[in-house]
Amino acid sequence: MKTKLLIVFSVVMLVFTASKPRPIHIFMAGDSTMAEKVLSKNVLDSTSGVTYSEIFRERGWGMLLPEYLKKNTEVVNLAQNGRSSRTFIEQGWWEKIITQVQPGDVVIIQFGHNDGAKDKPDRYTTPEDYKTNLIRFVTETRTKGGFPILCTSIARRKFDKENKIVDVHGVYPVITREVGKEMNIPVIDMYQQTIAWLEKEGPEASKQYFHKVSNDGRSKLYPKGLDDNTHLNEAGARIVAGFFAKEVKTQNIKSISKKIKTSL
Questions:
Q1: CA distance 128 to 149
Q2: Using CA atoms, how far apart are residues 176 and 150, in angstroms rounded to an integer?
């Protein structure tokens, strides 16, 4: 009798699970400023031979985006460290996204940091190819019935003598805006928003939002310290994710605005 009841219960659960509608998926294609990060790293002490687990405080803003979303959404963050739009395609990451996209899903696309790195030929992408890649991302997402959203790169924390952010991204944010306009695709201008934010905070206060480690030797990961002005810590990533969420509401981007929490 118990076996029969167990079988009936299992069948009911399978039917219930199968009948639940698939939540809208939000896919994220981008670089390290958006990507998932490990929460800790192991470090071997060469003197004692002991392996320590050290907290890793770098965060991509995609990691904090779920805090601004309602529960009936699923974030699939496949942004990758060090990737440009070109290498993201070449290494198969875009294929992993586009094969999963279903009608109604959202694909957030943010590149540019690594595309413009002329000193790193392994990732550099010409402006012409960058535009071609963005057009491909948008076109293929639309073909699958998904909704693409383009984002410009976030700013690097680099101030000039007048405490203004130095432009290190060149033409790449401009191209992102152009593709959005030409293809009638929403663009979240993360570059301009983060510039305004960092300049308001100023050179000193803005340090608290980036992945920095003091050089007092307490960190086994960075015994000589770390002065990172590109990657965010949790506080910075939360603010930047909030910029995205608020701008979605401001623009009333229908594909995703209803998925953003009302209280931001």
A1: 20
A2: 7
The per-residue pLDDT for range 135-181, each reduced to its tens digit, is: 999 999 999 999 999 999 999 999 999 999 999 999 999 999 999 99
Can you give the chain as a three-state secondary structure string?
CHHHHHHHHHHHHHHHHHHCCCCEEEEEEECCCCCCCCCEEEEECCCCCCEEEEECCCECHHHHHHHHECCCEEEEECCCCCCCHHHHHHCCHHHHHHCCCCCCCEEEEECCCCCCCCCCCCCCCCHHHHHHHHHHHHHHHHHCCCEEEEECCCCCCCECCCCCECCCCCCHHHHHHHHHHHCCCCEECHHHHHHHHHHHHHHHHHHHHEEEECCCCCCCCCCCCEEEEEEECHHHHHHHHHHHHHHHHHHCCCCCHHHECCCC
Compute the distance between CA of residue 34 and CA of residue 40 in angstroms, rounded to an integer: 18
Query: Residue written as tokens 């300049």?
Result: 199
Residue type present at position 21: P
Residue 8 reports pLDDT greater than 60:
no
Cα distance between residue 125 and residue 264, in whole Å: 36
Look over the chain and give the mean of its residue pLDDT values, rounded to a whole number: 92
- Angstrom distance (rounded) from CA 145 to CA 141: 7
